[in-house]
Design a protein that fits this description.
heterodimer; A: alpha+beta; 20 helices; about 30% helix; about 25% strand; globular; disordered N terminus; B: about 170 residues; about 15% strand; elongated
Chain lengths: ~725, ~170
């Protein structure tokens, strides 16, 4: 029976000692480039630089350095190791990695889960880790049998000699740990794969169905108190003064204290803390953002969109081409701020002592969190330990460039003499900022006399996510934040004259990556407008796209597959419409066809979504299918309902009541088709999101003749007059 | 409400959770959710919204699915409360088995609540139609969008139970 556990670093060490005979494999392995190599060399010899531990009971523990937030890394990462280690997944346990340079992302150089990169980045490393361990086990067995290594092989968790002698990994692990780490290992030819590419059941399902899985919110340490923080209702606001008499009178309340982020109420449990926080009387200084409103922002953005911004891409002479085009069309699009709204509200447990700080939380961003926590605590990063729990959804929110929820918890912990769990209510979580930015786009296209697009001019207006973060230097070039224009500046269609430009106004709303980041809006704009161009050209939207993809075989491949599986061109029941969209993000190519109907009252019902995905070599087809379903549901929530709006500097939404998400009733039937591929694996966590908005919007047009240019879809704009 | 405890301002209550009696001290209006999670240490029941909107905190009270974030501890004495941990001794209720078979959870946070609602649905309606499932389950939110798998797993569990898989 496979098992997934999350243990603390302390247990990790303890277990290591207790098991005694266990094999801890160091991983000073040759990696792709110099940068990643230096990143994986620990500065000191004390770090346990390890991914594999084999117990005398033959259980193989795989330490996973990517956070499990639903995307299946606690299964796909072990699969990569298991393939080369020659073990059955049923013998595998998973542990979350502690923070250590050994566990840094191979491309990003810090410990992070994001950008839909887990499988892609570990594809080489973890297979190499498995192969290296296998070779050491074989070497140990050969040595103890006094035979040539070449006469031994590894199979199903054991080393077998050509004579038939056999020793299990558990029996030989102790000796194997002392064998030299091979300098080079050969990786299997994919034709020999036994695990990779096969549908494997998730290792974490039992814990997620019996209540035993430990999320950040479930962590309990001895003498722990619980805190809630009253934070300013306006971003950038401050406490002017507060009265805590009524709050302090609530039974169970231990402390009410001002911290940089607001006023913290510390109590024996959530409920007394909540009751007391509600009883606080706080006078706020709203600060410079007191008048922010989404409506005004949209007006300002619309004006900006009429001017040229920083150029992200320029091919040919789009201005001239537009003037000379036989037909030109123009459209403006707007999408709102969006909250991640993970099911598990943010939380973080901190045990702060004079010389160390221990943190338990569901995070995607261990290295940054450790640095930020250390700064607030006045410690060195090495004095901060982070225990990564399961994440009750991440979607980018738990990789905060400023480590907001960790910093908040350490601020509270500094004032409390006991360990403390800092919790967020649903309202805190919804109003806490770090949203997908509000975007406004203006786009113009020109067709020649035959209906071929000859000009494309796209102006994007919205806040930069990366400016002001540690990633600005690498990812903002000449004033263009790559994440603002991704999916727009790299349109796959063969159009000779293209201009993509960007305005990045500085607004006091905290923004952050939200599942699929810039693609979450660029796909909507680009693929909706492609549909408008097809219509203007009098062409079928599928054929129109297909003909512009002569040099894009993978784009074309998924487009054709989705159209074929969806029965593009066949009759739908009366009142239904079909829409298609194509988008590449995080290295993966995806096309989706949506079938919708619109009621007389203007309510959109999405009946069916057919999704074709080419994400390179398939590691676990189950995961890919699940992530496509999930991405579609996530995108659909945004299209049908999602909007965070500001009025007088205040967020108008507070919970799932006014920030609804898709339910079982509104979830369409989703069919996923995976393109077989020999290419390296690419992302699946995010790429399912971007195409669903334009696929649905285009389907609504097919059903009603009305264009959706602003999200979420508003029934009043679609209802029958 | 019962006698005062050593903890100033708290009252004691006797709760029957997963067939065991517990004495707890709490503010009388404390939602059952927090007593289950913080006092009894049964963290399988999740906090999602505190507003009875998302269903992550669903438990069975006398067999009915109840949002534990919206029911105060003082109303819970004398009732039989079952949480995800108490569904079966081995975590292998047909609904849990079906959830594993159909690979339902992703992040997994909402699934204790989903499973408790599904158990209640099948207890009342052993052979639900898709419309029945939608009706009963649409108040249990899942941000990962596992809905079509939930539906599939409920159908599978119904079949297993009809074939005698029920304990």
């Amino acid at each position: 029976m496979s098992q997934v556990i999350n243990v603390s670093r302390r247990d990790f060490l303890k277990t290591g000692v207790a098991v005694g005979g266990g094999l801890i494999l160091g991983c000073s392995l040759p990696l792709g480039d110099a940068a990643s190599q230096s990143a994986t060399q620990p500065a000191t010899g004390t770090a346990i630089n390890a991914f594999v531990r084999i117990g005398t009971d033959d259980v193989v523990t795989i330490i996973v350095n990517h956070s499990e937030m639903g995307q299946g890394v606690y299964t796909s990462m072990p699969m990569l190791v298991a393939e080369e280690l020659e073990i059955n997944l049923s013998k595998v346990r998973v542990e979350a990695a502690p923070v250590d340079p050994a566990y840094n992302h191979t491309a990003f150089g810090i410990q992070v889960t994001g950008g839909s990169t887990s499988v892609a980045s570990e594809w080489e490393r973890l297979r190499t880790v498995g192969a290296s361990a296998r070779e050491m086990l074989i070497a140990a067995a050969a040595d103890s049998w006094k035979v040539d290594k070449a006469t031994c092989r590894a199979e199903n968790g054991a080393v077998i000699h050509s004579s038939g002698k056999r020793v299990t990994y558990g029996q030989i692990a102790d000796k194997a740990a002392k064998m030299p780490v091979p300098k080079e290992v050969a990786l299997k030819d994919p034709s020999q794969f036994k695990t990779i590419g096969k549908p494997m059941k998730r290792l974490d399902t039992p814990e997620k169905t019996n209540g035993k899985g430990i999320f950040g919110i479930d962590v309990k340490v001895p003498d722990m108190l619980v805190a809630l923080v009253a934070r300013p209702p306006v971003f950038g606001g401050k406490v002017k003064s507060f009265k805590a008499d009524r709050a302090k009178a609530v039974p169970g309340v231990k402390q009410v204290v001002q911290i940089p982020a607001g006023v913290a109420v510390v109590a024996t449990g959530f409920w007394p803390a909540k009751v007391a926080r509600d009883a606080l009387e706080i006078e706020w200084d709203d600060g410079p953002n007191a008048n922010l409103s989404s409506e005004t922002l949209l007006e300002q953005y619309a004006k900006l969109a009429k001017t040229l911004g920083k150029v992200a891409r320029k091919d040919g002479d789009p201005q001239r081409a537009l003037t000379r085009a036989a037909k030109t069309i123009e459209a403006e699009f707007a999408v709102p701020f969006l909250a991640h709204a993970t099911m598990e509200p943010l939380n973080c447990v901190v045990d702060l002592r004079s010389d160390r700080c221990e943190i338990w939380t569901g995070t995607q961003f261990q290295t940054v969190d450790r640095m930020e926590a250390a700064k607030v605590a006045g410690l060195r990063p090495e004095q901060v330990e982070i225990h990564t729990t399961l994440l009750g959804g991440g979607f980018g929110r738990r990789a905060n460039p400023h480590s907001d929820f960790v910093v908040l918890a350490v601020q509270v912990a500094k004032e409390v003499k006991q360990p403390v769990k800092v919790m967020w209510s649903r309202e805190d979580d919804t109003r806490g900022g770090y949203y997908r930015p509000l975007w406004y786009d203006r786009i113009a296209g020109g067709l020649d006399a035959t209906g071929k697009p000859v000009a494309w001019q796209h102006t994007i207006v919205g806040q930069s996510i990366l400016t002001g973060t540690p990633f600005e230097a690498a990812m903002v070039k000449d004033g263009v934040d790559e994440t603002s224009v991704e999916g727009a500046k790299d349109i796959p269609y063969n159009i000779p004259n293209v201009l993509v430009d960007l305005h990045s106004p500085k607004i006091g709303v905290p923004v952050q990556w939200w599942r699929s980041v810039g693609h979450s809006h660029t796909a909507f704009v680009v693929e909706s407008f492609m549909d408008e161009l097809a219509h203007a050209a009098g062409k079928d939207p599928y054929e129109f796209r297909r003909r512009l993809l002569a040099n894009q075989p993978r784009h074309k491949g998924v487009l054709e597959l989705a159209a074929q599986k969806a029965g593009w061109g066949t009759q739908l029941p009366a009142g239904q419409g079909r829409g298609i969209a194509l988008h590449k993000s995080f290295g993966s190519h995806i096309a989706q066809v949506a079938e919708v109907s619109v009621s007389d009252r203007g309510t959109v019902k999405v009946h069916r979504v057919v999704c074709a995905v080419d994400c390179g070599r398939v590691v676990n087809p189950n995961t890919i299918e699940a992530q496509m379903e999930s991405g579609i549901a996530f995108g659909l929530s945004a299209i049908l309902y999602g909007a965070i709006t500001l009025k007088n500097g205040r967020v108008e939404q507070s919970s799932f009541k006014n920030y609804p998400i898709v339910t079982m009733r509104s979830m369409p039937q989703v069919e996923v088709h995976i393109v077989p591929s020999q290419e390296p694996p690419t992302g699946v966590g995010e790429p399912g999101v971007p195409p669903i908005a334009p696929a649905v919007a285009n389907a609504v047009f097919a059903a009603t003749g009305k264009r959706i240019r602003s999200l979420p879809i508003r029934a009043e704009e679609l209802k029958k007059a | 409400m019962k006698e005062k405890t050593g903890r100033e301002g708290f009252s004691t209550f006797t709760l029957n959770v997963n067939r065991k009696d517990y004495k707890v001290a709490a503010l009388p209006d404390t939602p059952l959710l927090w007593v289950i999670r913080e006092d009894l240490g049964l963290t399988g029941t999740k906090f999602g919204c505190g507003l009875t909107v998302c269903g992550a905190c669903t438990v069975l009270v006398d067999g009915d699915p109840v949002r534990s974030c919206g029911s105060s501890v003082s109303e819970m004495e004398g009732k039989e409360i079952i949480t995800i941990e108490g569904l079966t001794p081995d975590g292998m209720h047909p609904v849990q088995k079906a959830w594993i078979e159909d690979e339902v959870p992703q992040c997994g946070y909402c699934h204790s609540g989903q499973i408790m609602s599904a158990v209640a649905l099948l207890a009342e309606n052993p052979n639900p139609t898709d419309a029945d499932i939608d009706e009963m389950m649409s108040d249990n939110l899942c941000r990962c969008g596992t809905y079509q798998r939930i539906r599939r797993a409920i159908r599978r569990a119904a079949k297993m139970m009809a074939e005698g898989g029920k304990k």
